[in-house]
Amino acid sequence: MKENEIKTRLQALDGLTLPPKSQMLRRAAVYQSSGITRLDPPAYTLPKPRPAFVRSPLAVIITLLILFGIAGGTILGADLYTYGKASAFFEEYGLSAEGLKRDELWDVYRDITTGKFELPATGQMLQSNMGITPSGPLSAGEAESLWEGWKEDQPSDPPEGILSSPHDIVRHISFTHTRFPEQIANTVRYQMRTPCFEPNIEAEKAALAASASNPMLPQWDAGKSAEFYYSVRYDSYTGRQYLFKFKKGETVIWSYPVGDLQMARLHVAGEYIAVTGSTEGAQHKDIHVLLFSQDGELCWQTVLDNGDNESVSQFLYEDHLIKVISKVDFKNIGYTVLDMEGNILHNVVNQQDVVPNVSFSSAIPFKSGYILISYMGTDFFIMDKNGTVTDYCDYSDEQANGDAGDEDLRIVDILPANNRLYIRFEVTDKREHGRPIDPALDLIQETDTFPGIAFSPYNDIIMAVRKAYRSLLLVCDADTFEPIAAYQMNDAYPSSVDLSQNSDGSIVWTSGAPYVTTYSPYTSAYTLSGTSYDYVYTIRPDGTVEDNVYVYIGSGYFG
Amino acid sequence: MAWKPGDSKRLERALMALGRGERTKDGEPAGMSELYDLMAQTILTAAYVITGNREDAEDVLQDTLMEIILDAHLYRPRTNPRAWVLTVARHTALDAVRKRNRRATVSEEAAFDMPAPSDAEGEFAALWDMLAVLKPEEREIVVLRLYHCLSYIEIAETLHVSVAAAQKRYQRALDKLREYHGVPKSTSAEKQKGDRHERE
């Protein structure tokens, strides 16, 4: 494909039309309001260019002494020395010396390290290493440019912040694995297809229309698209909850009262919206599932009744089925499958006594079933495709002698891949009281004057927040769940750490960091925002860590 | 995308005005309109080739404008304003891709009120047929070079790499396109002819 053809195809980008200018500028202008004190621009400096290879004066002196010092038998020694030094340089930078004669090796080495780039052999060697067929001598500038490009692509030492010492770290992780016997599957105790509550729709809507409260508190938003979004909101005037469909700009399309539901949550189920919540009856706290069409029609209501006290832990929509994982009677794990007509097809209640109070932060698809990550814990359950809980694993920070460690760990994410479980923990120092973010708050308190708006990826407040957190990646066997290897990353701002898998199977583990600290005198609050990637580690399926670590520093230039 | 003489100075003045927090008579941030006129299309296309869809690209454009307002005071005069703005846009777009590709524990993303692929998408079919084989960072360097006509120096400043590295990445991207579309890799003479012309 010729460049002209590429250019022709790229002209299709002319068809990208801009959004309305006034709309874009109006929204952006919100970020520049009057009354906020600005700092004088700090003296940021440009990032330092990659240093050219630094000559070692000592090496030069030694070379001179050897070459011009003792005569006779030193000449052989000198040759060995120069050849060895040049070879070491080639090896250090991954350069092949193929095609160079022995004496040329030293000459090319000196040509590069002195920054002259005058020898034709230097340019030829660099072109050869870069896979470019030499077609003629290069100028000094061209050769130097190639050398800079070669250095740019060389793997660098992993920076501070990642430790790969599986044995040391794994030793501090105590692993327990509990295998559950077959669980009892409850039959459906109670199912009601008629409305579980019957709001007076017209009266409710009239009350909402007359509502004097503004704005309503958003609770759960879902189904966001370019134009519409849904939200369950509480209206303090009517004292009721409503499901709203909004057009962008908070224009109400329709609303439906869901006032009797407690802990109402919103979920997307294919082309429908589901609302779940609990109602408290005299004897039961049951889960109610309501399914709405995009036009605001209530399709059906169904009550789940797997126990006396049940609440939604995870809501899943897969293969045109709704699957609800629930907390039942505080310690049992419920699993209910409904079709898109609201019929309960299957339900299981797993009774267990290992964990006193179950709550799950997420359900990760795993071997046709799920991994249920405990909320704020270091443990998880394994649920098979039928909803039966089969295993329980806990990775605690217990020392070899049984004492608790000095760090708090919690699982935030699990990625099943490469027949492994990549378990990502958030790690903080254990504190007698307070939170990991307290040092940053102390720093703010110590500041006599509020600095206004500060922008820097490395200002004291941001660094204090980042240093409070570490990320631990534990790699475990996907069948036995036993730890195999571990990696730790420091300065891992928790909400920006991510784990994903490349198409080649390697695992990408990133740590972002905020780079903007904004202070609002109106709310007297600091906001950390913006994200820059600080570290991106790629872990190959064989467990080795790629040496190329890309460091992006926010936007603009920072000293 | 033609960058006319004087546009760099206009853009720099706009960034400096934003950085000083100046306002127009209407109370609007001074420099915003100029910035939009000069760079909005460039930001949008750069974001589009990284994110791969129009909606995300528009969000990136919005976010980039907001980030520029916040960061404008960090712009250093007499450097390259276009590269500076593109750097902001680039990182904002990469952020958007990262967030979108974050693995979802629950599949809550459905085609909810999203428009079905329309005829408008069809006009990009040939473009994406070409670009799909490239990684986002390869796509962006091809677009920066061949669509936005940035010099290697400007590309290097935008991507925070050396000029040689920018040249090499661009060449690799072209080789990949040629290989995928059945054309042999360029020879050294073709590469050096283009590179030498740029460096002069």
Lay out the secondary structure.
The complex is a heterodimer of chains A (559) and B (200).
Chain A: H1 3-10, H2 21-29, H3 57-68, H4 74-92, H5 102-113, H6 120-129, H7 140-152, E1 162-163, H8 166-172, E2 174-179, H9 201-209, E3 217-222, E4 228-235, E5 240-247, E6 251-257, E7 262-269, E8 272-280, E9 285-292, E10 298-304, E11 310-318, E12 321-328, E13 332-338, E14 344-350, E15 360-366, E16 369-374, E17 379-383, E18 389-396, E19 407-417, E20 420-429, H10 438-446, E21 454-455, H11 460-467, E22 470-477, E23 483-489, E24 497-501, E25 507-513, E26 516-520, E27 525-529, E28 532-539
Antiparallel strand pairs in A: 1-23, 2-18, 3-4, 4-5, 5-6, 7-8, 8-9, 9-10, 11-12, 12-13, 13-14, 15-16, 16-17, 17-18, 19-20, 20-22, 21-26, 22-23, 24-25, 25-28, 26-27
Helix pairs in contact in A: 4-5, 6-7, 10-11
Chain B: H1 7-20, H2 32-51, H3 54-71, H4 81-101, H5 119-122, H6 125-131, H7 136-146, H8 152-159, H9 163-180, H10 188-199
Helix pairs in contact in B: 1-2, 2-3, 2-4, 2-7, 3-4, 4-8, 7-9, 8-9
